[in-house]
């Protein structure tokens, strides 16, 4: 499953459920998400997974933002050369669509990960299914129900660590 969390409204947006989570799957998911409002500014908070720094994602962002510069060649030169160069391009604050990469081992900073925890506790631990199709449908039904009845922004209560002198 690939999904987005609308931080301001506290809703799951544009869930994708499929047998894989490949570079192509993620790129198609982002493309479908930005089609919700093709003129809007989009900021995606993501972890360090390689599919979040892919060639296809760079090409999608460039095309969607009207960026016509030469992107180079993957593994050879330019923006497409490496994961680092692709991540730099994808996180450029001047782009209408950009990605913010959270540090490794900080999944709790990514609010969709917090919501996945809710999904596990409230649905997945409690169900029995006979097929992947049934599982997918139950997850989508849960998302619809959650968005209608429980959607609200997360309230962060962590105030930092106390100094232990």
UniProtKB/TrEMBL annotation:
This is Tc1-like transposase DDE domain-containing protein. The lineage of its organism: Bacteria, Bacillati, Cyanobacteriota, Cyanophyceae, Oscillatoriophycideae. It comes from Crocosphaera watsonii WH 8501. It comes from the Bacteria. InterPro entries: RNaseH_sf, Tc1-like_DDE_dom. Residues 15-135 form the Tc1-like transposase DDE domain. One of its GO terms (molecular function) is nucleic acid binding. Signal peptide: none annotated.
